[in-house]
Each structure stands twice: as structure tokens, then as C-alpha cells.
Amino acid sequence: MNHVDVLLTGNYYCDLIFTGMPELPTLGSEIYAKDMQLVPGGGAINTMMGLRNLGLTTGWVGVFGTDFASRLIAEWLTERGIDLSLVVRRDEPFRRITVAMSYPQDRAFLTYNDPRVDTIPQLQAAVEQVTHA
Fold first, then answer.
1. Residue-wise pLDDT tens digits, 89-128
2. 79-90 pLDDT per residue, tens
3. Among 12, 65, 85, 118, which residue has the fewest nearby CB atoms (within 10 Å)?
4. Which segments of 10-104 are extended strands (E)?
5. What's the CA gap between 76 and 114, in Å, rounded?
6. Which DSSP category does 55 fall into?
7. What is the C-alpha separation between 20 and 23, in angstroms, rounded?
8. Are 123 and 63 a contacting pair, CB within 8 Å?
9. 89/71 Cα distance (integer angstroms)
């Protein structure tokens, strides 16, 4: 691992954000959004990028899987210079997806996490690697 000013732990989220909708969708109906974004999200990612934007070198201890969202977020972070050398790569999906519907007055979320994946032992092992190196 390269030197980092701040090392963060946590899980990523892949956020699909819809905006410009006239109302919340109801059962049996379909509405159209005026815009959408597919971006990294979650507290760990948002904090990492904020620290990086302040000029600090950041690294992350987290987990990625074999799924599309893991690959997308890993590529996005790598392109922005985030050190992923302590990320655990699982040989199975590790999906963490949030769909957000944003309105001027409020917002609504729908989230899915792969429930079978226990990340705590892997994150602890990665932190041990850093603190005992």
C-alpha cells in the first residue's frame, strides 16, 4: 500500500438517481424522469472524495464482488486516484444498489444489499494488515 493521509473503511453503494419527476410512481402506473445519474455513493465513498478534493491522499478498506456495480465503482475510484490495494475482492456478487427518486420537496429510496456476504472479518483482516505493517 502506498502512503495515504486518511484510510477509510466501509461499504460502497452504486446510486441510480432519478430527477425531474412530476410525482412518485404508484402501483399500476408508469412515470418518466427528466434526468438520471449512475454514481458512487455511500458515506465511505462520499467522505473519500471530499477528502481527496481537499488535497488529501485517501485509501479505502472495503469489499468488491464480481458484479457490475462493484466493477463500475472500482473503475471510478481508480480513475480518481483512490488507493484500492486493501480492498477485498470476493469471487461472488457483492451488490449494494440504491435507487433514489429526488423531488424538490423530498426524496425516496429503494436499496438492495446482498445479504449473504459478511464483510466484517475481511475488513478487520485488512485493517490488521495496515496497522502491523
1. 889 999 999 999 988 888 899 999 987 666 556 566 666 6
2. 988 888 888 888
3. 118
4. 13-19, 35-41, 58-61, 63-64, 88-89, 96-102
5. 21
6. T
7. 9
8. yes
9. 10
Buried/exposed code over 1-29 (b: 16+ C-beta within 10 A; e: otherwise): eeebeebbbbbbbbbbbbeeeeeeeeeee
Cell of 74: 472500482
Cβ atoms of residues 33 and 84 within 8 Å: no
Cell matching residue 101 = 427518486
Domains of the chain (ranges, CATH numbers): 6-131 (3.40.1190.20)
Pairing of strands 13-19, 96-102: parallel
Residues sharing a CB contact under 8 Å with residue 31, sequence separation 6 or more, in sequence order: 21, 22, 23, 25
Buried b / exposed e along 83-101 (16+ C-beta atoms within 10 A): bbebbbebeeebbbbbebb
